[in-house]
Amino acid sequence: MTATRPPDAPLKIVIVGSVAAGTSAAAKARRNTETARITVYERDHDISYSGCGLPYFVGGEVADIDDLTPRDPAWFKARYDVDVRTGHEVVAVDTAARTVTVRDLATGRTFVDTYDELVLATGVRAVVPPIPGAGSTGVFSVRTPTDARAIRAWIEDSESRGRPVRHAVVVGAGYIGLEMTEQLTARGLAVTVVEAADHTMPRMDADMSARVDAEVRRHVRERGGDLLLSTKVTGITADDGGVTGVGVAREQAAEHLDAELVIVSVGVRPHVNLAEQAGVELGPTGAIAVDRRMRTNVEHVWAVGDVAESFHVITGEPVWVPLGSTANKMGRIAGDAMTGGPLEHRGILGTSIVRVFDLGVAQTGFTETQARAAGYDVEVLHNIKPDRPEYLGGTPLVIKAVADRATGRLLGAQAIGASGADKRIDVLATAITYGADVADLFHLDLAYSPTYATTKDPVHYTGMALTNAVHGQAPLVTPAELDRRRSDGERIQVVDVRSAKDRARSSVPDSVHIPLAELRQRAGELDPALPTLTYCNKGVTGNAGQNVLRNLGFTDVANLSGGNQGYQQHRQHTPRATPETPVPETSTPRKPSALFVCVHNAGRSQMAAGFLRALSGGAVEVRSAGSMPADQINPVAVEAMLEVGIDIRDETPKILTDDAVEASDAVITMGCGDACPFYPGKNYQDWELDDPAGQGIEAIRPIRDEIERRVRGLLAELGVQPVA
Ligand SMILES: Cc1cc2nc3c(=O)[nH]c(=O)nc-3n(C[C@H](O)[C@H](O)[C@H](O)COP(=O)(O)OP(=O)(O)OC[C@H]3O[C@@H](n4cnc5c(N)ncnc54)[C@H](O)[C@@H]3O)c2cc1C
């Protein structure tokens, strides 16, 4: 029998969960009506807190946890006349009788309460994978203020426990894992991030998160940590004093990482046990299915926040992206709807942003991968522009935008940069929400002052290039598409329209070099009947070259999205090819070979070559080269190597050639980013070492020692025993 409310009785609202969604629902319901009786049950002690701020309390950027937990039950009572009962868990729901069974966790007593409207705002639980040792002391998830207090205390009390926390392992490189990595690194810990996927930020496209990988690697290595991708945790070791280390497996080899602290952040799942018990339906994502008013399938039961499913603004399909921004909105909508208000949910784009050391990393709508999986024929642009003029400190902002070729609709964007990613992603999210065509972006009247933006904003440029591609005659080809088409056997004539100096740094393999200024005169060297691809460093000059060729009668001319920079980034992320031809057993074993590359080939690469020659005892073929080699070796690097008994005076600087790369099994760049090449099938690594140029011996010694450490690691990878 279903309970009914007498007409004059006050509406009785019961809410389960009191963080973002539950308290929003309570506050909105109260704003709409003074007569309702509103009770919130919360099994924890903290309420209405900023979960998003927890990493910054652990790191010390937020000094006091009270700043993240500004409200308590007394505040809610005084401000909203809402009863918040902390330490009270709802253990059962009877939807026919409209009752909840509640356990007072302090006394163990259970009691039954009635409701007219019930709101499930039970949030998520952290996933703890079944790793041996995951329950050890010193292993934490980051969900609640209790977790954050415990992590901070574990670090701060560690000296007095006699085992200072110096090394941390963060398992999972999603946004919470990376926020924790940043904050623990800021505390001076050597943090190693272990991620099973082959890139950080698994919700982003790999070519974009490659930039995040590099940023994380650079910062954690400065403190002795590392980023280990495609790596799985096999177990956590501990003794009476707590956790001691983490076992990992990568490339079929087992490794042990020292750790006195382990953070597990491999994801969350919706807290749906109460809902399931009450007969509330879940959607295809595993979260509670709700309509636009936040109603579940069961009358008078609502679900909001992380526990509830949402729907995608573009497709209307169910999606689950648990974020505080959405949780607050959903709570407000339910609070309004159950008290007679008009609010309805309009869906989400999964818009999010995270600070990762010096980068803002943001996304909205579909990534390229998601858009293709959803069946769209996509146009993809990588737009690299300063966020404001360089004369006022502008830094590169990379926007990857995805549009539907069939309709011109903007489907999604990702933005990464030291500044300005937040503003651009919000503008793009707004445009997508209102169904913008890519051509609409150019017409947006955006604010400009050189202190904040460029006259044509990066959003305008994104729109212009996508419009030319989708509606005009300037199609784009992504680096991945180029490689795919070439490996399918298609003949594409690739034209590098950059200067000789730029080309000397790195280039797209098998490209013809015709600088833009010579293109009109030398176009006869090209075959107008072949599919043609122009490229420059980032895309703008490539587009100019594309226009020249098109005007000269070339019918199939595309421009490389993101230019050479995008291409090199993509190549760094292309999985290494596995050798398919086994070496015949009778052949003489070939020496492994390694090539060290840096722009000037005048210090780091020579030191690395010197160490590898000496430590391998001649068992490895060693080369070093530079894209713009200097005239002589850095004499201070020579001096630093002589201190350890290695003479590198004969390592004269050499020009980098394709032959040298082709002849080497391992290609190691020293920290020159995309100034250096990447070739698939090579064991490619970027060691991201500091540059010794112009430095004194004191500064070069640690670089030298780091190089020796890396060379020893390389020897192990090449299977060569170092000589004494
Ligand atoms: C470290 C961290 C960083 C984050 N950063 C961001 C960010 O930058 N941006 C962003 O948008 N989002 C961020 N989030 C996500 C955001 O915090 C959540 O989306 C938001 O807290 C969800 O609110 P909620 O009310 O739906 O659920 P929750 O916050 O999970 O709250 C649910 C509450 O329900 C209680 N509960 C569950 N079952 C019962 C029961 N049976 N009886 C009584 N009580 C119960 C739980 O104890 C819990 O307190 C972050 C989260 C974390 C952990």
TrEMBL record:
Entry-linked Gene3D superfamilies: 3.40.50.2300, FAD/NAD(P)-binding domain (3.50.50.60), Rhodanese-like domain (3.40.250.10)
Co-factor(s): FAD
Biased composition (Low complexity): 578-589
Pfam name, any one: Pyr_redox_dim
Region (Disordered): 564-590
UniProt keyword annotation of Transmembrane present: no
Rhodanese domain sequence ranges: 488-575
Keywords, in A-Z order: FAD, Flavoprotein, Oxidoreductase, Redox-active center
InterPro entries from the UniProt entry: FAD-bd_OxRdtase, FAD/NAD-bd_sf, FAD/NAD-binding_dom, FAD/NAD-linked_Rdtase_dimer_sf, Ptyr_pPase, Ptyr_pPase_sf, Pyr_nucl-diS_OxRdtase_dimer, Rhodanese-like_dom
Domain of life of the native organism: Bacteria
Family according to the record: Belongs to the class-III pyridine nucleotide-disulfide oxidoreductase family.
Protein name in the entry: NADPH-dependent 2,4-dienoyl-CoA reductase/sulfur reductase-like enzyme/protein-tyrosine-phosphatase/rhodanese-related sulfurtransferase
Organism, scientific name: Promicromonospora iranensis
